[in-house]
Design a protein that fits this description.
By secondary structure, this protein is of the alpha/beta class. The protein has eight helices and ten strands.
């Protein structure tokens, strides 16, 4: 497996590395992870610059980036394979996507905006671009993320609309790969169109059906549980749930997403701004890719 980790010269980069290490160290030994630490510089490489001042400036930026990457690389345990690279692109998001698609990649990992409140998300321009364009899953580390000793649980948020089966399949495979319990949650925000008694009952029934399907799929490989949370809003529903420090949340893309691409929906955006734990968003995979025997885990 290969994770592309977006390295910035601030705490966002440290948060991204912390989350990448947490995920890499929790995988089973049969699924080793390679961390590709990537720093993106705007513009073109020094040798392609049009003028001497521009060449000198780009060379200075490149030297600084390589020094920072070397320091970051020292934080990676020798037991985990890791590489560093500097990529030139029009934006950091474009550079990360280019790097991720240059060869097989399972996950892009980035930190939240640096001005976000502690252990919460503020979606900056980089994360926002990735959450509306990435062809591979994206993991977001909340501001000030401190890596736990290991993952303790994977939570998957599932709605009743078409497309939930994609997130469910990825969650089932990922929980087994990381050897952690799987929690399925259904959120009912009474300020939304789904706030009627009828749809609330439908959400509970839907959650129970998903629990049955997931339990059958894992075949006793891990524990599966379900939670249904109600609140005056999606945010308040999230606050009613308990969260482990070693937990991550996985959600699927909006049905509006293009095939093999991420598009964060309204409910997911509300969740993102309320969660105290990392979130992984998976693309909208086409039907052939979501077969139970197809490995889509992260």
């Amino acid at each position: 497996m290969r994770y592309v980790v977006g390295i910035t010269m601030d705490k966002r980069g440290r948060d991204a590395v912390s989350l990448a290490l947490t995920l890499a160290q929790s995988t089973l030994s049969s699924h080793p992870v390679e961390l590709d630490l990537v720093h993106v510089l705007r513009g073109v490489p020094p040798e392609q610059a049009a003028t001497k001042p521009e060449r000198e400036y780009q060379k200075l930026c490149l030297d600084e980036a390589e020094q920072w990457l070397a320091k970051t690389h020292d934080l990676i345990p020798k037991s985990i394979r890791s590489t560093t690279s500097v990529h030139f692109a029009d934006s950091m998001a474009a550079g990360l996507i280019d790097t991720a698609t240059s060869r097989p990649c399972d996950l892009i990992v980035v930190g939240a905006a640096s001005h976000g409140p502690l252990r919460r998300f503020t979606v900056g321009s980089v994360a926002n671009a990735l959450l509306h364009a990435s062809p591979v899953p994206v993991a977001l580390a909340p501001s000030g993320y401190l890596p736990p000793s290991r993952l303790t649980r994977l939570t998957c948020a599932l709605g009743t609309r078409p497309g939930a089966e994609v997130a469910l399949n990825v969650a089932i495979q990922t929980s087994v790969r990381h050897d952690v319990p799987l929690r399925l949650i259904s959120l009912i925000g009474l300020d939304s169109r789904a706030g009627t008694d009828e749809t609330a009952e439908e959400a509970r029934t839907h959650a129970k059906n998903l629990l049955l399907r997931a339990s059958q799929s894992v075949d006793d490989a891990t524990e599966v549980m379900v939670d249904v949370a109600e609140g005056r809003s999606i945010e308040s529903a999230i606050d009613k749930l308990t969260w482990d420090e070693g937990e991550i949340v996985l959600i699927g893309s909006s049905r509006l997403a293009r095939s093999r691409s991420i598009f964060l929906g309204t409910t997911a955006n509300k969740m993102l701004r309320s969660l105290p734990v990392p979130m992984v968003v998976v693309p909208r995979y086409p039907a052939p890719d979501i077969a139970p025997d197809k490995d889509l885990s992260v």
